[in-house]
Amino acid sequence: MVATKLSIYKGALRFAEDRTITALTDDVEQRYVLDEIWDSDFIDEVLEMGLWKFAFRSIVIDADSGYTDPLGAGWQRFTKP
After folding, report:
1. Which of 38, 48, 45 is nearest to 9 (CA)?
2. How would you write the pLDDT of the chain (81 residues) with one tens digit per residue?
3. Assuming Cys at both sites, which of 21, 35, 47, 67 could form a disulfide with 26, CB separation 3.0 to 4.6 Å?
4. CB neighbour list of residue 20: distance below 8 Å, 6 or more residues apart
């Protein structure tokens, strides 16, 4: 299922226990507040923060024994923060 803007608005209003909307053209304060949030790039900021738990994929990659790292083993001294 692909989330639409209307379904996201409805979910947010349900979560806030507020009156829901039926269309993106409803002339109500809730829609105007959600439009302002949507237009302020809030959605992109939240997704970039990684606070979501969907759309993860795991894969297994086998090492290529014939590959030689052009940087040598020097990169191994660095640790992941």
Report:
1. 38
2. 567 899 989 999 999 999 889 999 999 999 999 999 999 888 788 778 877 767 777 788 888 778 777 766 656 665 655
3. 21
4. 10, 13, 14, 30
